[in-house]
């Protein structure tokens, strides 16, 4: 038998294993990072069933990668899963792995309540998730998944991701199905298979995910199709590939799909960005004229139309942004000179895809936008998120608005509308409070109302203008400071300081009769925001209590609110 043993260097074993796995998958592939996760699970278990049973909610793997790179913590239900996670790599991003199973107080509480330690551990994880972004990696206990499902449905938990991989026979299948119905991102091996090693493997696959691949913008696809169309019409031959020069100096080589004469398609490759247009065909038709004249742009099927003032393109025009227009014009001018041409762009299925984008909020109807300021797509970038926010802010500014409501998310928007009615303009700014205040002031806004859950906005009361957990925290410290300023005794301060969550601190504040600290903190947050605005705008703050009620407001809220209302 020894003659059948392959001599493989230790450093080459993993590489060779992956080659075997890829080969035995017989051409089956997944988009990254899913493919890496599937292969890693097979590599860990030598079980190709994972190619069929691993289920990913929409964009779950990308969400997990991004969360980890932004300092997310991982909560597991076993020491084995905890041991298997590469904690050095996790720490390099600012995260930490937690397993509460062996904590003495967990065992005691579980006995007193007549439940499993796993269920108690998930409650500990949920408490941590109020302070940090948390991924739950479950490799053993169905009761852990069941308790996570209950916490989600009770509104007590919003995890970054759940890896649901318990193994066994009793309630395993059912608990996994619950998580897949919970409305949160998940990675779940359906059926009975799983285990702590699989849970840890999925975590490590995301931790070691290579740098995400850049993609090609819709504008670059249009440009490539336009140039190919003109070449076809002027030479009688459609090119198979065209070279597109992007505004940032990168050269793209795009495959051309010939349609009818003079009509060319390019399939959008968004790289590793979760772009709804990835895989869509961008079809471009160029109509050439003998006389000299302008190059005009038209939107075909699936390309939206501008309906509101304030965007880079006037109302009534197709939603083709200036930079893609410039790219396409430059590309064909080198062939046709000063002759007139009409460029029509279509994106089959674009009207339906547009419902998943910012377009409805921007007043772009009936389809997608042809975008691209650089010609490439940078995956899941903070820059892209900020660009989207600025586009909406620009629209409001150019419409002449001077007052705006900033909310941190959809829940805050809903609650404030219920409490105060309709506003002139509303923008969900996520964690980018300071950045968006500065951008608003630059565009002439003079009244800014900011509303959101106190657990986030209390950070602003300490001068923190980006509320993401990987940037800064200081919530509990801020609450302690204000409690002390209101005369709270040392024992109360110590109780507050030991709280893991804002919610726990809020309960103590109420019990101790310290509710006056909330308007003080709202006022302090307002002052920090107005300082960020260089005193060029009034900034009102509204704290929400998490139960759809207003907890407190800054002194100037009535004035700012009046300016922001319709």
What can you see in these coordinates?
The protein is α/β, with parallel strands linked by helices. It has three domains: 181 residues, 3-Layer(aba) Sandwich (Rossmann fold); 158 residues, CbiD-like (2-Layer Sandwich), CATH 3.30.2110; 183 residues, no CATH class. α17 links the parallel β18 and β19. The mean pLDDT is 89.
Q: Please give the radius of gyration in angstroms.
A: 27 Å
> Overall pLDDT, averaged?
89
Helix count equals 24
**Percent range of helical residues:** 40-55%
User: How is the biggest beta sheet arranged?
Assistant: 6 strands, mixed
Beta-strand residue fraction: 15-25%
> Which structural class best describes the helix and strand composition?
alpha/beta
Low-pLDDT parts are none
Number of domains: 3
The total of beta strands comes to 22
Distance between the first and last residues' Cα = 83 Å
Going across the major beta sheet, what is the strand order? 1-6-5-4-2-3
What global shape is seen?
flat
Question: Can you give keywords for this protein?
Answer:
CbiD-like; 24 helices; 22 strands; flat; Rossmann fold; alpha/beta; 566 residues; five-stranded mixed β-sheet; six-stranded mixed β-sheet
């Amino acid at each position: 038998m020894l003659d059948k043993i392959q001599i493989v260097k230790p450093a080459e074993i993993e590489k060779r294993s992956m080659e075997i796995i890829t080969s035995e998958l017989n051409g089956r592939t997944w988009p990254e990072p899913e493919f890496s996760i599937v292969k890693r699970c097979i590599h860990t278990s030598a079980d190709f069933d994972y190619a069929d049973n691993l289920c990913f909610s929409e964009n779950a793997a990308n969400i997990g990668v991004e969360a980890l790179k932004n300092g997310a913590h991982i909560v597991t239900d076993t020491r084995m899963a905890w041991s298997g996670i590469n904690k050095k790599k996790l720490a390099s991003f600012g995260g930490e792995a937690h397993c509460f199973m062996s904590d003495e107080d967990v065992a005691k509480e579980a006995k007193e309540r007549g439940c499993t330690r796993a269920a108690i551990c998930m409650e500990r994880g949920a408490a941590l998730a109020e302070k940090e972004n948390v991924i739950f990696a479950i490799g053993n206990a169905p009761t852990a998944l069941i308790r996570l499902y209950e916490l989600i449905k009770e509104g007590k938990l919003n995890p970054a991701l759940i890896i649901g991989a318990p193994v066994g026979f009793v309630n395993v299948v059912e608990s996994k199905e619950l998580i897949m119905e919970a409305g949160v991102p998940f990675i779940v091996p359906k059926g009975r298979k799983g285990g702590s090693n699989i849970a840890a493997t999925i975590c490590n696959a995301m931790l070691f995910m290579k740098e995400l691949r850049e993609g090609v913008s819709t504008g670059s696809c249009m440009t490539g199709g336009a140039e190919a169309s003109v070449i076809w019409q002027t030479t009688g031959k459609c090119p198979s590939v065209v070279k597109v020069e992007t505004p940032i100096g990168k050269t793209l080589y795009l495959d051309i799909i010939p349609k009818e004469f003079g009509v060319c398609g390019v399939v959008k490759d968004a790289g590793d960005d979760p772009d709804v247009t990835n895989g869509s065909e961008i079809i471009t038709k160029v109509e050439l004229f003998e006389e000299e004249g302008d190059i005009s742009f038209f939107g075909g099927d699936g390309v939206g139309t501008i309906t509101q003032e304030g965007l880079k393109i006037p109302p009534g025009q197709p939603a083709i942004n200036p930079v893609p227009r410039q790219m396409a014009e430059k590309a064909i001018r080198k062939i046709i000179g000063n002759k007139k041409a009409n460029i029509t762009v279509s994106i089959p299925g674009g009207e339906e895809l547009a419902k998943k984008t910012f377009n409805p909020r921007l007043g772009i109807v009936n389809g997608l936008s042809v975008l691209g300021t650089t010609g490439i797509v940078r995956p899941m970038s903070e820059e892209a998120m900020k660009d989207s926010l600025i586009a909406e802010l620009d629209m409001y500014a150019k419409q002449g608005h001077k007052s705006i409501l900033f909310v941190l998310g959809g829940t805050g928007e809903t609650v404030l509308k219920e409490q105060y009615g309709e506003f002139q303009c509303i923008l969900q700014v996520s964690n980018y409070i300071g950045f968006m205040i500065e951008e608003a002031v630059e565009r002439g806004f003079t009244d800014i109302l900011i509303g959101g859950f106190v657990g986030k906005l209390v950070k602003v009361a300490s001068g923190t203008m980006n509320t993401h957990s990987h940037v800064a925290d200081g919530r509990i410290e801020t609450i302690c400071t204000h409690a002390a300023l209101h005369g709270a005794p040392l024992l109360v301060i110590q109780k507050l300081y030991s709280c893991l969550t804002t919610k726990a601190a809020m309960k103590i504040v109420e019990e101790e009769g310290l509710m006056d600290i909330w308007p003080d903190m709202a006022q302090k947050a307002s002052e920090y925001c107005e300082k960020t605005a260089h005193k060029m705008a009034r900034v009102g703050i509204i704290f929400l209590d998490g139960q759809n009620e207003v907890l407190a407001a800054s002194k100037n809220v009535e004035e700012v609110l009046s300016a922001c209302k319709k």
